[in-house]
Amino acid sequence: MTSLVVPAAVLSRVRWLAEGFRALTGVAVDAEVILAGRAGLLGHTPHGRVSAGGATRLMKSGDGWCALTLSRPDDIDAVPALIEADAVGDDPWPAVQDWVAAHDSADVTERARLLGLPVAAFGETPAEPPRVNPFWAATMPRSPSGLLVADLSAMWAGPLCGQLLAKAGAIVVKVETAARPDGARAGAPEFFDWMNGGKLSYLADFDEPSGVQALLAAADVVIESSRPAALTRRGLGPMTVAPRDGRVWLRITGHGTWGERADWVAFGDDAAVSGGLVCGGDDAPGFCGDAIADPLTGLQAAVAVAQSLRSGGGELIEMSLSAVAATYAELPRTDETACNATPQPAAPASGLGADNAIVEQLIADARLASC
Questions:
Q1: Homologous superfamily assigned to 4-40+127-261+287-370
Q2: Which of 178, 196, 221, 261 could form a disulfide with 256 if both were Cys (CB 3.0 to 4.6 A apart)?
Q3: Sign of dihedral through CA atoms 346, 347, 351, 355?
């Protein structure tokens, strides 16, 4: 069984959050499964400054430490432009590490972000609680059970939130497009099923967004992880979708929604480094857990949604992977513990668009109920 190392205080905080979710919803959550489940399913093994999943490296820069993720083909294709070389070999990492060592962290992150790469300077993001803003009228307190959740998110943090709400009895609709399905569909099916089994799959067309608009108008909860401008220009943002009393809109980003940070790309391992959440000392850091900012954010998001519903909802909740990681980085990190667990086998997730007819009927029923 794969064993991940995490600060003991981080595991303790996750257990506390899991108990909070149980108190709000009646659903028990295993904290170790949340943190170590993907590694357990896929056999990911931590390697110090190579992430458990293998796509991210923690590297010494001229004045500190940087993390860079090369998980997508486009990321690898951008490496020659990043390091200003004509080409790199089959393994780009030695050349990248040499280039990072010759530059300060600010120069590394600025150039990488210009190329759209997921990058982080160690500890660049301060801790910040979720931003919660009133947006619609509140209703009576509710639990997630029976509510309609539109899950527009992808990969891990948002889908985990949706999965936890589904376990609490919500009807969760996973929204994808043919052009850009959830990237996790192309990965290990065990992980995709774990995150998305039990959700309805709705194939949408964002270039003709009337169907998605109708779903969002009917939804009691919306989960999204897009850059805000991407949804807004299609009329799919919280300010443009038809209002609904008590709706909770959850927005998860890599680094926030303000200024240049709104355009920064992030994955769980580099976001954790951005927030300063690592194992080992600050002078010799190593990766903590497996893409740890993702499960931490997904669980915290599920608790935040459940709390909002308990208070009547009507809120926009914004949280970022790096800021969540930074709140955990403030905990003591000297005492580390092994964390290992494997989820029970999940029901297979629905095929892309397999449940469109069911979802369209749910939308029609919601329209009738509101008349």
A1: Crotonobetainyl-coa:carnitine coa-transferase; domain 1 (3.40.50.10540)
A2: 261
A3: negative
